[in-house]
Amino acid sequence: MKDVLGRAGVGRTFLDADDLRPGDHWLPRMKEAITDCDALITLLTPQFVNRPWMSAEWACFWAAEKTTYVLRLAVPRDAVFQPMQGSQDADLDSVASVVAFLDAVAEHGDENYELAERLVERVRRARTEQAAAQTRELMHRLVTSPNAVPESVIRSLIETGHVEDLLRLHERAREPAANLTPVRLRNVAALLQQSGVGSERLIPLVSSIGNSNYQRELVIAVLLGSEPAVARRAFADALFDLLTRTAKQRVVAAADDCGFELGDKWRGIPPFGE
Question: Which pTM was predicted?
């Protein structure tokens, strides 16, 4: 943005990352910049919009009756707090919106359309790169973390289109740093099943869990699901040999409770408790 402003004809900008040196007393320098400048440009991202320093810095300009501009990146206008909504606003996903902003701040704006096109495209690339980096970080955490991995990590990977990577997660169990415990694989399989992934696709992952109780939980979850009966029956049959006798009895009891007819493999297995 600083480079684009310079190319558009803005003679001088202050950006803390460039204009504050190690060892500087940053607060006095920021106050000096606030006093000397003509306008403030605030870049609002989902990560920044609710941080207290954002509103505090912006309020300093507002109180000093300085011109303020708000550039939004993936932040809807109604998410901007009320006083800030009076600033000139631009959406960094819109070339026309960025052109209007550059026309407002630049004295020599002959190239503003080209600059806006390049900026919007660069923002899109940066967001794609950032999303890919975040996905790699989440997957690395899921595979290697020594601590419990929250469901939000798994849900995020599902929502961003990484179902196939999760279905093959058990294949990474032999990696040197892997910590793919049975409970972690169970949680992945359960959330995939809840998200609508077909039971047939879950068989290799569930088979690898290595814990009969967890596998039994997933078989029952599939039996209680909405897939065609033939698919649910095939899933139960595929896990039959991996379950302990008690786990099988619990599956039979759950099937009886919901009126589901299991396959021939299950004949002769009494419900749990009988």
Answer: 0.72
